[in-house]
Amino acid sequence: MGGIVGVDVGGTFTDLAMIGPDGRLRIAKTPTTTDNQAFGVLAALEEAGISLPETSLIVHGTTTTTNAVLERKLSKTGLITTAGFRDVLELGRRTRPQAYGMKGEFRPVIPRDLRLEVPERMDAEGNVVTPLDEAALREAVRALLDAGCEALVIHFLHAYANPAHERRAAEIAATLWPNRFITMGHALLSETREFERGVTAAVNASVQPLLERYLARLRDELAGNGYPGDVLVMNGNGGMVSSARVAEEAAKTVMSGPASGVMAAAYTGRVAGASNLITYDMGGTSTDVALIRDGVPPVSNEIEIEYAMPIHVPMVDVRTIGAGGGSIARVNAAGLLEVGPESAGADPGPICYGRGGVTPTISDANLLLGRLDPARLAVTGGVTRDAVAEVFARELGAPLGVDAEAAALAVVRLANAKMAGAIRMVSLSLGADPRDFALFAFGGAGPLHAVALAAELGVPRVLVPVRPGITNALGCVVADLRHDYVRTVNQPLETADLEALHALFAEQVSAGEAALAAETVAIREVRKSFSVDMQFVGQSHVVRVLLADGAPSRDDLRNGFAAAYWERFRVELQGIEARIVNVNCSVVGVSDPVDLSGLIDPAGRLERAEPYAHRRVVFEDGAEETAVYRRDQLPLDAVIAGPAVIEQADTTILIEPGWVARGDALGNLLVEVAA
Amino acid sequence: MSIDPITLSVIQAGLAQVCDEMDMAFSRAAFSPVIAEANDRSDGIYAAEDGALIAQGAGGLPVFVGTMQDSTRQLIERIRDGVTPAPKPGDVYIVNDPYLGGTHLMDVRFARPFYRGGEIFCWLSNTGHWPDTGGSVPGGFSASATAVEQEGLRLPPVRLFKEGRMDEEIYAIICSNIRVADQRIGDVKAQAAALQVGADRLTALLDRYGDDVVRQAIAELRTRAETQMRRLIDEIADGTYSSVAWVDSDGVVNEPLAIRLTVTKSAGHLQFDFAASSAPCAGPMNSVRATTLSSVYLAMRHIFPEVPISAGAFAPLEVTGIEGTFLDARYPRPVSGCAAEVSQRIAEAVFAALVEALPDRVTAAPAGTSGNFALGGHDPKRGRDFVMYQLSGGGYGGNADHDGLSNGCSTIGISKAPPVEIMEQNFPVLYHRYALREGSGGAGRHRGGLGLDYEVELLRGMARASFVMDHGRFGPQGALGGEDGAVNEVEVWQGGKRIVPEHLSKAQDIALEAGDRVRVRTPGGGGYGDPNERDPELLSEDKRLGRT
Fold first, then answer.
1. Do A94 and B408 touch (CB under 8 A)?
2. Is pTM, for the whole model, over 0.90?
3. Are strands A525-536 and A578-590 parallel, antiparallel or unpaired?
4. pLDDT tens, residue by residue, B272-304
5. Chain A hits for B424, Cβ within 8 Å
6. What is the DSSP letter of B533?
7. In Å, how far is A473's CA from the nearest CA of chain B?
8. Which of A55, B155, B199, B296 lies at a 20 to 30 A Cα distance from B407?
9. For chain A, how long is the longest CA-to-CA vector?
10. Distance between CA atoms of A210 and A11, rounded to whole angstroms?
11. Which of B10, B393, B424 comes nearest A123 by C-beta?
C-alpha cells in the first residue's frame, strides 16, 4: 500500500500532507493558483517529492466552489419554479445586510431573466393543487437552453412534502438537457423554507459544471503523472466522497477547507486526550471557530456563507470571526482605538509583508512587540522595523498619546479582547461555557494569540498541534467517508406514526450504505447516527435530539427532547405540545486510523529544551528578554515555562508569562497555567 | 488622573460584550419566535442617577435605541418621588406603559438594579415584544382603537421579581389578561435570565478593572461619543433644512397626518423641530415622546452607523416642538402604530431633510412600513382558532452608491419574514404569488428598490383581515430629483368583488370566506438623483429583467 496524500487548497496557499507507507510525514506549501487550482496541487506534489504511481489515495480540500459563489463567477444557470414564485431567490427573507445603514445590495445566484415559471402547485401537506403543466415545462427548458444555460434548477413549492412534480419535471428536462447538471430543490436537503432550499439548489447547480471540469482536469493531470487511483474530495460535512460523484451535490463542498481543519482538530484531540475543543484557526483576514464536544465536530444544516446566502446542507458548523493578522488598527473620531473589521487582506497585506501595505495591522503589532521575529523582515525585504514603528507612532501613538510600542501592545490587547468576546458568543450560542474546553490553535496566526485568548476566556488549556500550518491538509488524510440524510416530516410528537419514522431511518441507512459501497476506498466499519430535530408548537427554532438507534419509542423522543431543550436553553417547559420537524441520519464509513507519530521528525532533537536565541518581547506587564526555541529541535517531553517564543516553519507560538508548555509523545504542545 | 485611551477601548469592548451576551441569552431562551427568531428585543446598561444609556447591544431592534434610557429614567424618578416602591437586590421591575418611556404595549420592559457594595451602580434593562398583551384584537395592533385601554393591559413599573423570586400574584393578573398565556412563562424566564447574565458579566468586568476605573471609563466614553457625534454633524453645513412626511391616516379619521420637520444645524449641534406637525389623532397612529426621540436617534444612526449607541452620541441631537402634536401623545391616546409606522415616518422626515446636506450618506426614502397584515379566524379542519401575521418589506431608497435594495426590512426593524411554506403549514391559506413588484422603484439616477407583491387566499372557514400599513396615499419620497416610489396598495376580493379599504393602508376586521383573496403591493423605494442621468446600461438591464 502506498502513501495517503491530503491536499488543501486555501485562499493563499496550497498545503499538502502525505503519510508514507513507512508512516513518515512529508509536507509541502505552495502558492495557490487561482485560475486552475490543479497547477498548485501538482506543484505541491512535486515539492514534496511524491511519486504518484506509488500513491494509494489522494484526498482533496478545495475552495473552487466557495470562491465561485463569493465572487459570483458561476456557470450560467436557469431556474424553473412554481408559477407566482420566480422571485423567491431575490426577495430573500426581507432583511438588510446590516442593522444600521440603509444602503446595501444583493445579487441573486440566478438573474431574473433566467428564472421561469410553470403552472404546478402542491399544498403544505403534499396534495396536488395544480397539476404540472408538462408542455409549459418543456417550453421553459428549451427557453433556458436557448439562453445558453449550462445547469438547471427545478424548485417547486412544498416539494419536501411531495417531490412528485419535481421528479417528473427533472425526468422531462433530462430528455432535453445535454448534460446531467440538473438539480431538484428537494434533492440536497428535503426541508421546509423555499428561499433557503432554493438558494442551496441554485448554488449547487451553478457550481456543478465548474467543480466537475476542475476535478476532471485534476484527475487527468494526476493520471498523466502516473497516479492510478481515485481522487476523493472533502465535503463540508467533514467526510470525503469520490471526485466522480462529488459534483452531484457540489454545494456540499463550500465549507471543504474549514471542515477538514476541524476534522483534524477532532482527530488530534481524541488521540491527545482532549476531546472538548474550541478550534481557533486565525489566518490573514479572518478567524474560524468551531466547538467540538466529546471528540465529535458539530454539524449544522444552517450555514450562511455570506449575507442572504444560506447553504442548507449538513456541514461542519464553523463560524467566522472578522479578525485576522491583516486586520487594520486605527484611531476613530472619538480618539479611541479600533481594530478591524477592515483588513489589509493578503495583498497588500500588513506593512511587514513588504508588499506596499501602509496601514497598521495586528501582524505589524506582533512584529513591533518582538513576538514575530524581526529578522524575518529581511526575507520580505524593503521594510524595516523602524519603518513599521514610525507608522505606528504616527497613526496610532500620536493620537493616543503613547509611543509606537505601547500602541502596538494596545492593538494586540484590544484584538485579543474582541476575539475572545467573539469566541464566547460562538460557544454561548451553542449552549457551552468556553471554560469547559481546551483551545486548539492552528492557522498561521492562531498559536501566537491562543494563550492570551485562553487567559481572557478562562480556558485552562491550549493545544498546539505539531503542524498548525497544515491542519486542513491533515484533515484530508484522517477523514472518513460520510453521507448525511435529512427529511422534513412535521408531525406532532404524540400522534406521529413511529413505524413510518423507523422505516424512514431504515431507508436513510440503506441509501448511505449503498453510497459507501459505491466508493473504492476500503473502510473498517460503518457507523450510523440518528437524530430528530424537534420544537414546541408555536416556536420556529428546532433542537436536535440525538437517538441511540433508528427505532426510538415515543418516550425516547419525549425524554430526549426535554433533556436536549434543557441542555441548550436551561428552560423547562411543560404541557406545551412538541413536534418532530426533521429526521436525520448520518452514515459514516470509518477509514483506517492514521498514526500521527509520523508527523514528527525524531532527527535533530536536543537532549533538553534549550533556546537558540533570546530577544526582547513586550508583554502586558512589560518587556522581557525572552528565550526563543526552535520547535523541531525540542525533545518530545520538553517543558518550557513562559515567557517564551517557540518558532517553527509554519507558525510562531507565544507562551505568556505564568503559563507553561509541555510536549507530548505525538509532538503536540499543551500549554497550561503554571502551577 | 484621567483614564488612558487604551484601557478605555478595552472597557468599551467589555461593556458591549455584556450587552451582546444579554441579547443572546434573551433570544436563545425566549419561547416566542418574535423574540427568538425576529430579535424584536434589546438589552442594555443605564446610569444609576438618570438612566442615561451607557451601552446597548448592537443586535437589538433599532427602534429601541432611545426608548430604554427614557424608560429607566422615569423609573428612577418615580422611585425617588416615592411613586414606585424602592428596589432591593434581586428585584426586577416590569413595565409596558407607553407614556413612561415606551413604544406600544406589546414592548414589555424589565429593569433590574445592579448593586456594588450595597449601592446601585447602574441599571440593567431589556425590552421584549410579547405576542399579545390583551386588548380588543389578538396581537395588539388594532387599526381602529381610540383609547389605550382597547390596546391591551397597561402595567406601571411593578416588581415582578422580588429578591430573585417571581411574584406569582402579579404574574397571575398578567396571565388573566393576555392571550395564549401558557406560553408566556418561557419569555418571562428568558427576559429575567438575560438580566442575570448581564449582572454576572458586569460583575466580572468590574472585578477585573475596578469600580472606579470603570466608572471613569463610562463617563469618558460618554464625552467621547458626544465629541464624535459633534464632529460628524459638522459635515453638515450650518443652516436650516426642512421636510414633510405624511402618515396616510390614523385608521379612524381619514385625514393625512403631517410630520413637519425643520432641522437647524449650528456648530456641533442639530435641532429637530417638529412644532408644525399635526395634533394628536383619534386612532392609534400617535407616537409617544420616547418613541419620537428614539426615531430621530435611529435615523441618525442609520446615517452615522460608526457612532456607538450611547447617551453621549444623542446629546448633540435636540428634539423640540413635539408638545401638542401627535408625536407626543398623552394618556389615553391609542399608540399601537407608533413603533411600527409613525417611527418610520419620523425617520423618513429626517432622511428627507438631510439628504441634500449629506448626499453621500443619506438615501432617498425607504418603503418605511412594517406592512402588517393580520388574519384571524377559525380553521374548521383543525378545529382551532388562528391568528396569522404577514409582515412584509419594501424597496429601499436609491443612494449615491447604487440602486436601493429590494424587499428590505422596515427601517426600525431587523427581522426576517417567515417563508410562504411555513405560513401555509400553519394557517389555512394558499399564496398565489410572492414576487417582486415590477415598476415600483422610484426612477432616479439610482432607482429605488422594488416592493413586494403577494396574493393570498383563505382556503377554509371564515376569517377577518386587518391591515396596519402606510404610504398608501403618498409614496416614499425621492431625493435630489429622483421620483417617489410606488404607493402601498391593498385589495380584498370578497365574494368575487374587489374592495379597497377606505383608509387605503389601514383597515380592521374585513370578513373573508373560503375562496376570498387579499392582495398587497408594498411600496418601492424613492429614486435618487435625476432619472435622465441614469446609466443607459442600467436602464436596459432594468428593462431586460422586468424591473421597470
1. yes
2. yes
3. antiparallel
4. 999 999 999 999 999 999 999 999 999 999 999
5. 123-124, 158
6. G
7. 35
8. B296
9. 80
10. 17
11. B424
pLDDT tens track for A5-53: 999 988 778 999 998 878 788 888 888 887 788 999 999 999 999 989 9
Q: Is the pLDDT of residue A378 over 70?
A: no
Tell if the CB–CB gap between B190 and A424 is shorter than 8 Å: no
Residues 184-203 of A with CB under 8 A from B: 192-196
Mind listing the pLDDT tens digit for each residue in B460-499?
999 999 999 999 999 999 999 999 999 999 999 999 999 9
SS3 of residue A106 by DSSP:
coil
Neighbours of A44 (CB within 10 A): 27
A85–B416 C-beta distance less than 8 A: no
Phi, psi of A266 (to 5 degrees): -60, -45
Suggest the residue from A85, A90, A94, A106 to mutate for an interface test with chain B (most B CBs closer than 10 A).
Answer: A94
- Return the pLDDT at A377: 67
- Is A435 an 8 Å CB contact of chain B? no
Q: Is B520 helix (H, G, I), strand (E, B) or coil?
A: strand
* B285, amino acid identity: M
> Could you tell me which of A91, A120, A97 has the C-alpha nearest to residue A193?
A91
Which residues in chain A touch residue B383, judged by CB atoms under 8 angstroms apart? Answer: none
Give the minimum alpha-carbon distance from A156 to chain B in angstroms, rounded to a whole number. Answer: 11
B406/B447 Cα distance (integer angstroms): 10
CA distance to partner chain A, nearest, from residue B506 (Å): 21
User: Could you tell me the three cell numbers for A188?
Assistant: 440536497
pLDDT of residue B235 exceeding 70, the answer is: yes
Q: What's the pLDDT score for residue B155?
A: 97
Residues in chain B closer than 8 A to A571 (CB atoms):
29, 31, 186, 189-190, 193
What are the DSSP E strand ranges found in B191-348?
239-247, 257-266, 269-273, 317-320
Helix/strand/coil for A365: helix
Torsion of CA B42, B48, B52, B54, to 10 degrees: -60
Question: Distance, in angstroms, between A146 CA and closest chain B CA?
Answer: 16
A406 to chain B: which residues are within 8 Å by CB? 6
Res A381: pLDDT: 66
Q: Can you tell me the ipTM of this complex?
A: 0.94
Do B310 and B221 form a contact (C-beta atoms < 8 A)?
Answer: yes
CB atoms within 10 A of CB B399: 30
Predicted confidence at residue A380, as pLDDT, reads: 63
Q: What is the pLDDT of residues A242-265, one digit of tens each?
A: 998 899 999 999 989 899 999 999
Residue A509 C-beta-side C-alpha neighbours within 13 Å: 15
Residue for grid cell 492510478: A228
Instruction: Please judge whether A98 and B305 are an interchain contact, meaning their C-beta atoms are less than 8 angstroms apart.
Output: yes
Answer positive or negative: Cα dihedral of B345, B347, B348, B349.
positive
Which runs of consecutive H residues, i.e. helices, occur in A246-344? 256-272
**Is the CB of A194 less than 8 angstroms away from the CB of B228?**
no
Taking alpha carbons only, the member of B118, B467, B512, B17 closest to residue B283 is B467
Helix (H, G, I), strand (E, B) or coil at A303: strand
Q: How many A/B residue pairs have CB atoms within 8 Å?
A: 212
Grid cell 504542545 is found at A669
Span A355-376, pLDDT tens digits: 888 999 999 999 999 999 887 7
* C-beta of residue A218 within 8 angstroms of C-beta of residue A231: yes
Which residue, A361, A363, A354, is CA-closest to A395? A361
Take residue B431 and report the three cell numbers written for it.
399564496
| A649 to A28, A99, A209, A646: CA distances (angstroms) | 11, 42, 37, 10
State how far residue B253 is from chain A, nearest Cα, in angstroms.
31
Tell me how close the Cα of A536 comes to any Cα of chain B, in angstroms: 9
Nearest by CB to A573, from B186, B408, B432: name it: B186
pLDDT of residue B363: 98
